[in-house]
Amino acid sequence: MSSLAATGTDAAQAPARAIQPAWVRTMHWINAFAMILMIMSGWQIYNASPLFDFHFDKSITLGGWLGGALLWHFAAMWILMINGLAYLVTGFVTGRFRKKLLPITATGVISDARAALTFKLSHDDISKYNYVQKLLYAGIIAVGVVIVLSGLSIWKPVQLYYLVMLFGDYPTARYVHFFCMALICLFLIVHVVLALLVPKSLRAMIIGR
Amino acid sequence: MGKRSFLIPGVDKKLLIKDAIKVMPDLTRRRFISGGASLGALTLLTGCDVLDSDRAEDMLKKVSKFNDAVQAWMFNPDALAPTFPESAITKPFPFNAYYEVDDAPEVDGKTWKLEVRGLVDNKKSWTLEELYALPQVKQVTRHICVEGWSAIGSWTGTPLRDFLKLIGADTRARYVWFQCADKEGYNSPLDMRTALHPQTQMTFKFADEILPRAYGFPMKIRVPTKLGFKNPKYVVSMEVTNDYKGGYWEDQGYNSFSGS
């Protein structure tokens, strides 16, 4: 506890040195919480009318039945949307997206991916994202935008008809919503595994540095 | 012999009884949020008691009410549900209810009457013959179920707003509340603005044929701007009212507005 507090004081004295600013950390963990609620309740909603020949085990779903799951889903959506919108606005306005995520080049991604897979990728300076990180972080933001837009289309297919048209029709929007969830889950697995393999990145997301 | 204590040291007696009552089957609670196991899993994940099911239930009910208001605000009375060519109709159109199709109500069209109650000038009951004589329109629209699936169907009948005008309904009232013939007494409230939507229909035909039993003979209310469960079948009465009288699924936790 005391070492944590000391680090916190240091961070306050030298805010410029924070790898992850407070707003990123706050929004990151709010998003993580909302995402878990959305995914678990979403699985229960999926079970009511599965798109594929499988269903999610009840032990990993939220809500108990369709009605309960819908209540969770349509409550957590506000946390996800408001936090997500604030994150996008702040990310653009502060220039963080531009500074941290750009440029993304194909050669950079390929060479960093190769280095990562052979465990040769350096993690000495975690304040700079490598190209694989840039691609994945930019990509998951895009997926986040699409999952919200497809979700709104399913929720309000008449009032937000122009959004539905973006995806083609209502059933397609459902599939898009599902595949975005699958991509987020895949990302989550890789993200958590890598954060545990490079613990200082996890530390930076909790205490800033 | 003294009373044996079943209490666990350090556990509040009142809370324990409250918990015991919670797990007892209670019809009034119905199944608003069941599945303590999955809630438990979440509590494990987050390690906090905020998600204790009673408090969570209260919070979720409040958000659902808030979502009703948001949806009412989003509802555009002039926005029409998309229509489709006849070739797009889903065949066979799915049957869906809380009972099997063999248990669906069997209504005798000769004796059936639509009862009209509440804030209306003319409370006369309507026979099927009288209703069939009213002008009808056809719509081919997408039926979207709360479960997520959807199907395109063809429904023909009288716009509800024309009927409401005909019976002198007070359209400033908040709801039209429908009751149905099935044995558990299906019912559902419809907000007045949706009731007055041009595509909201008293339906007498499906795919140009007299409404079959599976789809709600003799009359269903087709509301293409609402989820399927807000499209009652086997309707026996309608009441124009300012009171929120609840509904079969609404009382169990489905969002009451459930607009699409």
Give short descriptive properties of this protein.
heterodimer; A: 209 residues; mainly alpha; 2 domains; 74% helix; globular; disordered N terminus; B: 260 residues; alpha+beta; Sulfite Oxidase, Chain A, domain 2; 5-stranded mixed β-sheet; 5-stranded antiparallel β-sheet; 6 helices; 23% helix; 21% strand
- For this entry, what is the oligomeric state of its chains? heterodimer
Record field, number of beta strands of chain A: 0
- Taken as a percent bin, the fraction of beta residues of chain A is under 5%
Total helices of chain A: the number is 9
CATH architecture of the largest domain in chain B: Alpha-Beta Complex
The CATH homologous superfamily of the largest domain in chain B is named: Oxidoreductase, molybdopterin-binding domain
Helix content of chain A: over 70%
Write down the overall mean pLDDT of chain B. Answer: 86
Number of domains of chain B: 2
Distance between the termini of chain B: 65 Å
Low-confidence stretches of chain B: 1-10, 20-38
The sequence of SSEs of chain B as H and E is: HHHEEHEEHEEHEEEE
Regions of chain A with pLDDT < 50 over 5+ consecutive residues?
A: 1-15
Structure description:
The complex is a heterodimer of chains A (209) and B (260). Chain A has nine helices and no strands. Chain A is mostly helical and 209 residues long. Chain A folds into two domains: 35-94, no CATH class; 104-209. The longest helix of chain A has 28 residues, at 66-93. Chain B is of the alpha+beta class. In chain B, 23% of the residues lie in helices and 21% in strands. Chain B is built from six helices and ten strands, in the order αααββαββαββαββββ. In chain B, a hairpin with a 2-residue loop joins strand 7 (201-206) and strand 8 (209-210). The radius of gyration of chain B is 22 Å and the shape is globular. The A-B interface holds A 33, 36-37, 40, 44-46, 48-49, 58-68, 70-72, 74-75, 78, 154-159, 161, 170-171, 174 and B 31-39, 41-42, 45-46, 59-61, 63-64, 67, 71, 74-76, 79-82, 142, 144-150, 224-225, 249, 252-255, 259-260.
